[in-house]
Amino acid sequence: MGARNSPYTCGVDAAVDVIGGKWKVLLLWALAEQPRRFGELRRELPKISEKVLSQQLRELEADAIVHREVYAQIPPKVEYSLTDLGTSLNEALSPLGAWGRAHMAHLEATYPQRHPA
């Protein structure tokens, strides 16, 4: 069996490449409800910096997960929404969220040991 010409070793590897990092999954969650403007996303995720938010949105847009709509008006208006690919990714993440909710008490109790200061 010859070597594959792919940057990924499996499907999970490919998915993690798209959602890797602290903020992308939270952005997907925020955009699942409705399209949002940059400022709305910033308020939804108060700990994210504007620089990181812009970077993460650009990466999700490059991966065709997020659509950026620019409205020709004054003042300028830009909205972000999930593409069909982004919606399907959010659906795939739903069982992971359910697992997290089911085990949140344990994860919170063990957080200090798993993440020492």
Explain this structure to me?
The chain is mainly alpha-helical and 117 residues long. It has helices spanning 11-19, 24-33, 38-44, 50-62, 84-102, 104-114; strands at 36-37, 66-71, 77-82. Strands 1-3-2 form a three-stranded antiparallel beta sheet. A hairpin with a 5-residue loop joins strand 2 and strand 3 (77-82). Helix 2 (24-33) packs across helix 5 (84-102). The longest helix has 19 residues, at 84-102. It is globular and about 50 Å long. The model has no long low-confidence stretch (mean pLDDT 92).
For the termini, the CA-CA separation is 46 Å
* Helix run count: 6
Major sheet: order of its strands?
A: 1-3-2
Low-confidence runs: none
Largest sheet: 3 strands, antiparallel
Coarse morphology: globular
* Helix and strand pattern: HHEHHEEHH
Mean pLDDT: 92
Helix content: 55-70%
| Share of β-strand residues | 5-15%
Radius of gyration, rounded?
A: 17 Å
Structural class by sheet pairing and helices: mainly alpha
Number of strands: 3
Summarize the structure.
The chain has six helices and three strands, in the order ααβααββαα.
Characteristic key phrases:
117 residues; mainly alpha; three-stranded antiparallel sheet; globular
Topology record:
Layout (H helix, E strand, L loop, with lengths): L10 H9 L4 H10 L2 E2 H7 L5 H13 L3 E6 L5 E6 L1 H19 L1 H11 L3
Antiparallel strand pairs: 1-3, 2-3
Helix pairs in contact: 2-5
